[in-house]
Amino acid sequence: MKTAAKRLALAVGVVLLAAGAASAGLMVARTGNARGYPISDLPQGVSAATLQVTPAFVYRHGPSVVVLRPFAPDSTVAVAWCPAQGFFEDPSTGSKFRADGSYLAGPAERGMDRINATVVDGVLQIAPGATIPGQKRGAEVPATSLPPCDWAHARFAPGVAPPPSPTPEPAA
């Protein structure tokens, strides 16, 4: 009787774990020989995601997909996706990056790093340990030439601790 109860508890645990993983974007799909994440399940624009237990931002524009490391270049400072402004911002330097991770403004020397990814048979495949450095910037554009991030609505990649807001919060 105890063995049957343990088996039932294990089965329920596996189902709950699978359901939780699916909602967090951790499930792996198979399409033909491709193993990864169906791009048809990815919304257009920027999404925060966990891919193979790797926190990331995924930028989808039509059939094109870019997977971004959710940190400032050469740093462990988490960048924020600022949906109202349509860019990423590094809270420590004010550097700003386009939705595809390319340099936009601020003191950063280059754009955000990408996680090596490819689309095979409509399925996104990533190599979590393989990053591609962001493209070097041209002339520096002052960060103040663009509006600041709306930190009240900023999004961070799942599992990444957001840094303190660089903008003082209004007193309640």
Q: Report the major sheet.
A: 4 strands, antiparallel
Name the overall outline: globular
Distance between the termini: 57 Å
| Proportion of beta-strand residues | 25-35%
The helix content is: 10-25%
- Helix/strand structural class: mainly beta
Please list the strands of the largest sheet in the order they lie side by side.
1-2-11-10
Count all strands and give the number. 11
Uncertain spans? 8-34
> What is the average of the pLDDT values?
80
SS summary, helix count:
1
C-alpha-based Rg, rounded: 19 Å
The sequence of SSEs as H and E is HEEEEEEEEEEE
Describe the protein in words.
By secondary structure, the chain is mainly beta. Helix content is 13%, strand content 33%. It is built from 1 helix and 11 strands. The strands form 3 sheets. A 4-stranded antiparallel beta sheet has the order 1-2-11-10, with no helix packed on it. A 4-stranded antiparallel beta sheet has the order 6-7-8-9, with no helix packed on it. Strands 3-4-5 form a 3-stranded antiparallel beta sheet, with no helix packed on it. Strand 7 and strand 8 form a beta hairpin. The chain is globular, with a radius of gyration of 19 Å. The termini are far apart.
